Amino acid sequence: MDDADHGAANVEQLLDTPGLADALESDRFKQFLDHMPVAIAVSELLPEERITYANLEFERLTGQSASELEGKNWQALPGVASAPDDDRPLSEAVEADEEYVGTFSISLDGQTVNVDAWSNTIEDDSGEPSFRLVALARTGQGLRNDEEMVRQSLRDKDTLLFELQHRVKNNLQMITALIRMEARNVSDQETGERFDRLAGRINSLALLYRSLSIEGQGDTIDLGVYLSQIASAVIQAHAPEGIRLDLKIDTWPVALDVAMPAGLVVNELLTNSLKHAFPNDEGGTITLHSLVDETGCRVTVADDGVGLADGMTWPKPGKLGAVIAQSLRQNAKADWTVTSRPGSGMRVDIFFARKDAAPK
């Protein structure tokens, strides 16, 4: 096969791949992205790069409507780098760089808005780059003219996304992985459960973002407070009448790369319990304990529901939950045990050693 035929085959394969392109045709998926706490825009790379989607937050931060952006290239994007020694337009930076791009200033309604920017290419299942996903988030700070103050603000890292980019290999990578894995084979007949799960996972990251902004403690998050916030959000979103939450929390500061996978795993387990442990609207108790002693922290997530069926395990191999659980072991060096019998509920105990979880 010559290069032209090979290229045509790659394009045909890309167009036939069920994934983000199909998902962006789904009104349900677009509604989900419109409620994300991060500004998201997507471009298709072939046959030539053009913006195909922008969510509501992206419209708000750039001052341009989706209809104005769609069909154009990134040159339509406003914004100039904020650093004193950097004059790159945002439009060029998102095409030239990967992952964290930098801080940029956008003129919006007569005021200057500062945003942190990320740019990631997304490959199809054959490894061919097919989309670019650009994310923007307000820095929460006004532009400072003093060069040392700008550098100090970067050292303080007062937005979560900036923290995660350096501490746990970029929050945007996690978001794009979640979207890719959940968006495959989207159809209007689906119940929406997969998007509920995706929304819960993204919300866990958003809670971490807000906690960092409020606490202002650099790379430290209180694990107990964070897990209790996740429990509250999951219960509010999914709990039917008759569910009791047994919550016992000790405060304990941990590093961000411990808090993020821990929050995602706890979100996963609580969601599983609420959706599957109590069929037929049966009441029951869900337990979340995060208790600290001199050795470290023990997090317990349990329910007194129907338990795992014979032959079932948690996490289920090959599923996204297994990827998230594995990140808990890799990033936080956590150990866990799972106990379940049909009709006797399910219990997961996670242990974080004090020496491994402490902020660096």
Structure description:
With 360 residues, the chain is α+β, with helices and mostly antiparallel strands. It folds into two domains: 13-183, PAS domain (Beta-Lactamase); 193-357, 2-Layer Sandwich (Heat Shock Protein 90). It has 14 helices and 13 strands. Helix 11 packs parallel to helix 12 and helix 12 runs antiparallel to helix 13 (320-332). The longest helix has 23 residues, at 193-215. It is elongated, with a radius of gyration of 22 Å. Mean pLDDT is 76; it is low at 1-18 and 140-172.
CATH class of the largest domain: Alpha Beta
Percent helix among the residues?
A: 40-55%
CATH architecture label of the largest domain:
2-Layer Sandwich
Number of domains: 2
Element string (H = helix, E = strand): HHHEEHHEHEEEHHHHEHEEHEEHEEH
Q: What's the number of helices? A: 14
Largest sheet: 6 strands, antiparallel
Q: What is the distance, rounded to the nearest whole angstrom, between the alpha carbons of the first and last residues?
A: 53 Å
Q: What sort of overall outline do the alpha carbons produce when their principal axes are compared?
A: elongated
Mean pLDDT: 76
Q: Looking across the biggest beta sheet, what order are the strands in?
A: 2-1-6-5-4-3
- What is the CATH topology assignment of the largest domain? Beta-Lactamase
| Global Rg | 22 Å
